[in-house]
């Protein structure tokens, strides 16, 4: 439907929540839609994870292009992005997913792994609903603390599950990265390996002569 300025209140019955984990990088809820009575699985999470679960038949090329433009723009501004998607379930699927999840959750040894496997099976084939972005502001004294580390000659690594552009932007905002640095950039294990070997060896002498600090982003 059309977006309006008039607030609309809806009450949804949530039958099951599939929690967020760092491995899954997403969460889902199983609900009954109050408008049409349909059973639906709503999911939100990291764009790379959700895009891999989208129904290929429902992917509109123009919409996907606009999505990529939005994600790239948001990431370049250091914003965290999320995708939202949905899948309509018939009663048999609705009943079975609840049964399968209850059985998996009762496994005292491998509950987490089994829930993840079952969830992925039912989360496939979702239809994209939209994307959002949010600013995750730095905590107080982050920049000052990192500067103290540098003065003490303590090497600092930033580990994050964010997209590369988002991570770089956050690196600059907390002054872990600076414009004076020569930044090596790589994506994936193979490129990172090259950065640590061939490229680093090749450029090391010139960089040392220039006296520039270095940073590796991958």
UniProtKB/TrEMBL annotation:
GO BP field: phospholipid translocation
An example Gene Ontology CC term for this record: plasma membrane
Disulfide bond among keywords: no
Pfam families per UniProt: Cation_ATPase (PF13246)
Coiled coil: 94-121
GO molecular function, one term: ATPase-coupled intramembrane lipid transporter activity
Alphabetical keyword list: Coiled coil
UniProt-listed SUPFAM superfamilies: HAD-like, Metal cation-transporting ATPase, ATP-binding domain N
Protein name: Uncharacterized protein
Organism of derivation: Euplotes crassus
High-level lineage: Eukaryota, Sar, Alveolata, Ciliophora, Intramacronucleata
